[in-house]
Amino acid sequence: MKTAHAAWRRLEPVHGMIYFVPEARRRYADLGLSGRAGYFTSRSAAFGRASAELVISTFYNFNPDFVRQAVDRAWDATAPQKVLEARYAAAGEALRRAGIHELPDLDEVLALTRRAAEAACEHPQGRPLFAAHAALPWPEEPVLQLWHAQTLLREFRGDGHVACLLSEGVGGLEALILHAATGEVPVDFLKASRAWPEEEWAGTQERLRKRGLLDGDSLSSEGVILRRHIEDRTDRLALPAYAALGDAGCERLAELASPFGRAVVEAGLLKLG
User: Fold this and answer.
1) For the chain, which terminal residue's Cβ has fewer other Cβ atoms within 10 angstroms, N or C?
2) Could you report the per-residue pLDDT of 239-253, keeping only the tens digit for each?
């Protein structure tokens, strides 16, 4: 399980950069999508003309009012297929800027990642966001194939994570606050990007303190245990994809993936902006 997690984590920047790069913002703006509308529509466009309620249910930890404001008018400006085309074009442009297409192990990394992604496609049940992306055609360009494969693995894991949160009775804002309490991501970024009102954030934070999950603004010992439990269960639910590689394949992918993630970071593709 640890090697599978490492394989996913080290390659995840190849997918995650799409939420930060200017290439994506420019292309979404060209379609008439401003602010966070580009994020919500591009990630949900695989559903077709996704309603705000569908985005709220599958994205999980965003303020519902914020999602409705961003999504309700977005589909009047453009169509899902155009957004998907813009997203893939931006991904390819950004990854080439990072030099991903020139890395010597691209073919092997792609082969391993695609094998895991295709194995995940045999288990779509209960994973709506993943299943929508799994129905999209594979791109022809190797760099975009790699991005698509990692996108599938990210959404496969993400849907499993939402299932774990639901089963543990952890709501969207609660999950966000517990994440913030780890110190892994700046609190100000999480507040700004998820757009929960300050009074709701503070009220939920206080309820988590009463549940014994927070000690001040940090995780309590019980909170640490719960977070670890949820992350471990999420990793286990992601195993059907990586089992196709076996331990040796996961170790090989984890080894080869590091330069890919590092190239994305060093090119500044994950800069907050």
Assistant:
1) C
2) 999 999 999 999 999
